[in-house]
Each structure stands twice: as C-alpha cells, then as structure tokens.
Amino acid sequence: MAANKRNETTGPKAATAASKVMSDPHSTAQEKSAAASALAQVGRPAVTHAKAASAAGRDLSDPNSTARERSAAASALAQTPNKKKP
Questions:
Q1: Beta carbons of 37 and 3 less than 8 angstroms apart
Q2: HSE-CB for 6 with a 13 A CA cutoff
Q3: What angle (nearest 5°) sits at the alpha carbon of residue 82, between those of residues 79 and 39?
Q4: What digits encode the pLDDT tens for the residues 30-60?
Q5: Domain limits of the chain?
Q6: 76 with 56: CB under 8 angstroms?
Q7: Whole-number Å distance between alpha carbons of 56 and 32
C-alpha cells in the first residue's frame, strides 16, 4: 500500500559511511548487508527489505559496531516501511 511507504533516501554522510563499511575487509556480512541497503537508496526513494532491516537492527544493538557501521544501519532502518497499526 502506498500509505505504508516512506519517501526517504540515503544522505551523503550516511552514503560515505556505508561505502567505507563495504570496502572494510573487517566488516561482517551483516554490516555489509545494512550498508548495501543504504547505498541502494542513494538518490532515489526505496524501501529496506525485512532481511536487511533485521541485519541493521543487529548492527545498532551490537556494542562492537563502529560509528560508521551504525550510521549505515540507521540509514537503512530509516527507510523501512511503516508498520500498520492494529
């Protein structure tokens, strides 16, 4: 439904952070998933899928995540669909 979509895009700071996460050989698959989702949404509105949103949520709750990884994850989560209210 159109009402459930957000019209968000990844900003320049988050895109730079996501790019650095993608090129970091020490980034985990989970971190790269969240970063890839954020990068896919640069310059055009899109919706983060459930699997990438789940990875982004784990990145945000991981105390070992860097600020760069958290920035990319937060950008991806900001672009998840709104949940329907019961």
A1: no
A2: 17
A3: 10
A4: 888 888 888 888 887 777 888 888 888 888 8
A5: 7-78
A6: yes
A7: 9
Residue located via tokens 């439904």 = 1
Q: pTM for the complete prediction?
A: 0.62
Percent of the chain with pLDDT over 90: 13
Q: How would DSSP label each residue in 1-61? A: -GGG-----B-HHHHHHHHHHHH-TT--HHHHHHHHHHHHTBSS-----HHHHHHHHHHHH
CA atoms within 13 Å, Cβ hemisphere of 26? 5
CA distance 13 to 73: 12
